[in-house]
């Protein structure tokens, strides 16, 4: 459900609260990542990931996931996690979810990409499914 006061300032406060509520072990694992809020994915992003409409994308991770970094990575620009306000508000309303829950879930999902998980692995984790054959 869309909550009253769902303007950008209110939304940014919800994002700050979600960051503060991350499990300590997740917060400790995340370094040099900028969390950015935008209204929606821009045209270039939509083209790049073959997105039909910007409101289909709740969040996006841009960077080099931890498992793929080597010693050459030192001093790199921060990775980025984008949270798209309009898409999250719409998804929350359409699925009768609290906006804060949708923000938190999207943030954790995108940070999962930072940690090296792909969408399929994150789906299994999010829904409590067992790992595929051959995984730990």
- Distance from first to last alpha carbon: 38 Å
Q: Strands across the major sheet, in which order?
A: 1-3-2
Q: Give a count of the beta strands, DSSP E runs of length 2 or more.
A: 3
Shape: globular
Classify the helix fraction into a percent range.
Answer: 40-55%
Q: What amount of the residues lies in strands?
A: 5-15%
- Biggest beta sheet summary: 3 strands, mixed
Summarize the structure in words.
- This protein has a single domain (8-67, 76-126), classed as Zincin-like (2-Layer Sandwich), CATH 3.30.2010.20.
- With 136 residues, the protein is an alpha+beta fold.
- Helix content is 43%, strand content 12%.
- Helix 1 (8-20) packs across helix 5 (99-114) and helix 4 (85-94) crosses helix 5.
- It starts with 7 loop residues before the first helix and ends in a 10-residue tail after the last helix.
- It is globular, with a radius of gyration of 16 Å.
- Strands 1-3-2 form a three-stranded mixed beta sheet.
């Amino acid at each position: 459900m869309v909550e009253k006061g769902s303007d950008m300032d209110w939304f940014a406060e919800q994002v700050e609260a979600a960051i503060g509520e991350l499990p300590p072990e997740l917060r400790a694992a995340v370094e040099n990542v900028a969390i950015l809020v935008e209204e929606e994915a821009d045209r270039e992003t939509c083209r790049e990931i073959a997105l039909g409409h910007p409101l289909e994308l709740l969040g996006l991770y841009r960077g080099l996931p931890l498992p793929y970094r080597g010693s050459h990575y030192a001093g790199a620009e921060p990775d980025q996690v984008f949270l798209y306000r309009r898409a999250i508000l719409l998804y929350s309303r359409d699925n009768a979810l609290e906006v804060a829950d949708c923000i938190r879930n999207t943030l954790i999902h995108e940070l999962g990409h930072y940690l090296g998980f792909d969408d399929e692995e994150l789906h299994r984790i999010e829904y409590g499914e067992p790992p595929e054959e051959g995984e730990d």
